[in-house]
Specification:
Layout lengths: L1 H11 L10 H21 L2 E2 L2 E2 L24 E2 H11 L7 H17 L4 E12 L4 E10 L7 E2 L1 E2 L6 E4 L5 E2 L7 H6 L3 E2 L1 H16 L10
Antiparallel strand pairs: 1-2, 3-7, 4-5, 6-10, 7-8, 8-9
Helix pairs in contact: 1-2, 3-4, 3-6, 4-6
């Protein structure tokens, strides 16, 4: 979704690479882009009137969060949400609704960060699975010097970090994930930090009277 909207935005911004796109097609693209933004706003996860971020995949009819692959459960997905928010921040003259969506997502990223935690990759006996070969394993360690980190998935209502096995079984710690998925998937991410880094300049420009990162 973010990739498609980025292409549309480049066309509408008259990026020279898309100079071949004719006027009639540009009008259709503008309509599609506006509909895409409407969909983005409609799918931001709302929990008791509190906006958070986005799921990895949605039902095309109900727009409810749904499963992607079997180990990608309905949840608040921080990696994909961070990429989306960075894109939304590039939109000039954002609407009030879009400004609020970004603000609330930034607040979510700040509230959901995990401190003093690092993911350590260790050597392990080589195992050949049907889908891949693994020669390492991963574990969570406490590290007072570690930068903020985020779980990739958070449970929709409780905000607990989520993990999952290939059979679709949801678990609540990395150690409970079978080794093939524990070592072979990015369960923890740093992407939201990129949003937090960009936020001060964006906030001064588009929301100068409301800094959601200032805690009263």
């Amino acid at each position: 979704m973010t990739g498609i909207l980025s292409v549309f935005k480049n066309i509408l911004d008259n990026n020279p690479a898309y100079s071949f796109v004719k006027t009639a097609k540009r009008r259709k693209i503008k309509t599609a882009f506006d509909k895409g933004l409407h969909c983005v706003l409609a799918t931001q996860i709302n929990n008791n009137d509190t906006l958070t971020a986005w799921c990895q995949q949605y039902d095309p009819i109900t727009l409810a969060p749904t499963w992607a692959r079997k180990f990608e459960p309905p949840s608040i997905c921080n990696r994909e949400s961070a990429v989306l928010v960075l894109f939304l921040m590039t939109i000039k003259e954002p609407s009030k609704e879009l400004i609020n969506a970004i603000q609330q997502a930034v607040k979510w990223f700040d509230n959901s960060k995990i401190l003093y935690t690092r993911i350590k990759t260790i050597a392990a006996p080589t195992i050949i699975y049907k889908v891949r070969k693994s020669s390492t394993d991963k574990m969570v360690v406490i590290d007072s010097a570690a930068p903020p980190i985020w779980a990739r998935y958070y449970q929709l209502k409780t905000y607990k970090p989520l993990f999952c096995n290939r059979d679709g079984q949801v678990v609540y710690s990395l150690s409970q994930v079978e080794r093939e998925r524990r070592d072979g998937y990015g369960w923890y991410v740093y992407d939201p930090q990129n949003v937090l880094n960009e936020y001060p300049a964006w906030q001064k420009k588009y929301a100068p009277n409301k800094n959601v990162l200032i805690h009263n």
